[in-house]
Amino acid sequence: MYLPTIRQLQYLLAVIELRHFGRAAERCFVTQSTLSSAIQELEAALGVQLIERTKRKVLPTPLGLEVAEKGREILKISSDIVELSHSNKNPLSAEIRLGAIPTIAPFLLPKVLPPLRQAFPDLVLLLIEDQSAHLLKRLESGEIDCAILALPYPLGRLESVLIGAEPFWVALPKGDPLAKLERIGSDELPMERLLLLEEGHCLRDHVITACHGRDRAATSAAFQGTSLYTLIEMVSGGQGITLVPEMALDSALLKQTSIELRPLAEPGPHRELALVWRSTSYQQSNLQLLAAKLSALISG
Question: 0.85 exceeded by the pTM?
């Protein structure tokens, strides 16, 4: 009887989740031809079609979805076996697959990674950047061990430890009339000029909440970007205003752009940072230790 390999199941899950062979190959760190060939071999061995391929899109067959769901369970069990084998080693001396959302990763990781590596030289961190919903799926499937997320966000049965909190700042074009204020209240923000991230980014929801949900029609904002970097460039070009988390203030991007920054007057913090992991993880003690170290580095 033929048994699918772990690698084949990983490739299949990536394609079904992303609906794209190229992006799936990037996630799995292989070439597109390698990934495609592995899935074709799996289909041939099982004697069924799992993926419907056209020139414009990739669709899983109903059976492909069922196989992927079973594969997700198998990958989680496999991940737990690996974690179990490392559970008795020295603290933070194993490999940890860490996810982080795009509005945290480029601002926090460069600050905390050097001291983490100095404190735990045997720690191997594999870093993955993705949106919150995708990171939670990858956590549940065992593809990653933990993730740094921004709260509030529904975590289900996952465990979490707060590692930091921060307020938002208002980013304005140079010379904007609002820049005359030392602090800016949400009721003073011209919502028709507010630039937001597109749906799927939790920072979008946190910004709207910080503005007390004003004109939830902020969904019809002048521009909806795919990254905070894009929004900052739009502000610099005089196309509107946006809110940025405090951790971004020291970034090279903000220092190199022609913008004004003023604290948002609404009581904060406007978002909290948490390290999140599966409650069944065999790396509980390691992840607790990692959370404590991250918290110390952020507050320091």
Answer: no
